[in-house]
Design goal:
Elements lengths: L2 H4 L32 E5 L3 E6 L10 H5 L3 E4 L4 E3 L6 E2 L15 E6 L3 E8 L2 E5 L6 H9 L2 H12 L2 E8 L13 E9 L8 H11 L6 E2 L5 H10 L5 E6 L4 E5 L1 H4 L1 H6 L4 H9 L3 H5 L4 H32 L4 H11 L5 H8 L4 H12 L3 H11 L16
Parallel strand pairs: 5-13
Antiparallel strand pairs: 1-2, 2-3, 3-4, 6-11, 6-12, 7-8, 7-9, 9-10, 12-13
């Protein structure tokens, strides 16, 4: 995609950009990821999805791994979809005072819905979330306006992935929305990973009649902005988009529901639910440091258990996949705890056992007795003993 196609005459060489990893095919990604680091490669009939299902300290340790957040490849292994790279909360990986807030940047409202990006599969325009054609993605495709579909094809045919947020009364996360909408957030060149400049996004929105995420005044005083933004209500938060391509996010205290989080910190089922639904990053961002450290340690222990069980199951299935199903079942039942049966047969059928195990944990997190029922399987231990919990207003 050249500047001349857009007709604005801007020399891309004038821009200073983050050196995102170049990705042309699945082969460019596979050497840098493994299940032990939290990644799964889900092979479907007509495409492949590369995503992470849990995070350990080594998960996002290189440029390629930061991209493995819903990458899509066609049946030949060619990249067909590149949504957002993994970016972090303000202060999570770099101290607030170490961020150069004078660098050119935009501040965008963070919408509270589902990230959606389209791909073209065998000529068909398909909407996807990180994990693929999910129920939310299908719902978003149903509500897509003609302009959204036209913009999607236009960009994809030019080697660019448009990224939308789907918000709807029927797809509520925390913030309530009155009507379904697909809002254009960003667009990325699939191979280079370069983000289109904000001005291009605005012009595309105007050209195709597609709503574009709202931009507010850039940050002048980081400390004052963070303090004020955390207190805001009725929004999820903000995304800081530096012209270099670097991004940071900030969610309001109200969105993350600090009161609810700390009030529920006594119950292990709540903490396990955060782990199973990949919500820990968002929750710990607004917890006091000592509580956050305890939650992160619990997450690491649970994820280690997931990895150990799933790894053993995957190896077993690979070794015995040629057995008749009945013989495989008998051998598996003698080898694995019966509570892991679903994961074992998922692996035998070519599916990811880790996802089944994570689903098991999510179900267990619905009640304390269910947590107790799998406690020994994952050596679950949670306690708030020794933590200085704040006094909460009722």
């Amino acid at each position: 995609m050249t500047a001349s196609r857009w007709g604005h005459g801007r020399d891309r060489n004038e821009e200073i950009s983050v050196d995102f990893a170049a990705i042309r095919s699945l082969e460019d990604v596979e050497p840098f990821i493994s299940f032990e680091r939290g990644f799964v490669v889900s092979r479907r009939a007509d495409h492949t999805v590369v995503d992470y299902v849990y995070a350990v300290p080594e998960t996002f340790s290189c440029g390629v791994s930061l991209e493995c957040r819903g990458l899509k490849f066609d049946r030949s292994g060619r990249i067909i979809g590149r949504p957002f790279h993994k970016f972090f909360n303000i202060g999570e990986r770099e101290r607030i005072e170490d961020t150069d807030w004078s660098a050119p940047h935009g501040l965008l409202a963070k919408l509270d819905g589902s990230m959606i990006h389209p791909v073209i599969l065998d000529g068909r325009l398909a909407f996807m979330t990180r994990k693929g054609e999910s129920a939310q993605a299908i719902m978003a495709r149903h509500h897509a306006e003609p302009g959204t579909l036209d913009l999607s094809r236009f960009l994809i045919e030019g080697g660019i992935t448009p990224i939308f947020e789907f918000t709807s009364p029927d797809n509520r996360v925390v913030v309530a929305y009155d009507s379904p909408a697909l809002t254009l957030l960003a667009a990325r060149e699939m191979v280079s990973g370069r983000y289109l400049p904000r001005a291009e996004i605005v012009r595309l929105g105007e050209r195709f009649g597609v709503p574009v995420v709202v931009e507010v005044d850039p940050i002048a005083d980081a400390a004052a902005f963070i303090a004020q933004a955390r207190r805001e209500a009725g929004i999820e938060g903000y995304v800081v988009c530096f012209e270099s391509g670097h991004r940071l996010k900030l969610k309001t205290d109200g969105y993350v529901l600090r009161h609810r989080a700390i009030a529920g910190i006594h119950l292990e089922k709540n903490v396990l639910a955060w782990v199973a639904t990949q919500a820990v990053d968002d929750v710990v961002a607004i917890l006091p440091p000592d509580i956050a450290a305890r939650v992160l340690a619990y997450q690491a222990a649970v994820n280690a258990g997931i990895a150990a069980h799933a790894g053993a199951i995957a190896d077993f299935a690979a070794e015995h996949r040629d057995l008749p199903r009945k013989e495989f079942a008998a051998l598996a039942l003698s080898r694995f705890d019966r509570r892991l049966t679903g994961a074992v047969f998922a692996a035998f059928d070519g599916r990811d056992p880790a996802r089944v195990i994570v689903d098991m944990l999510a179900q267990a997190a619905k009640s304390d007795p269910k947590v107790d029922a799998i406690r020994d399987l994952f050596a679950l231990t949670w306690s708030v003993e020794g933590l200085a919990l704040p006094e909460l207003e009722t």
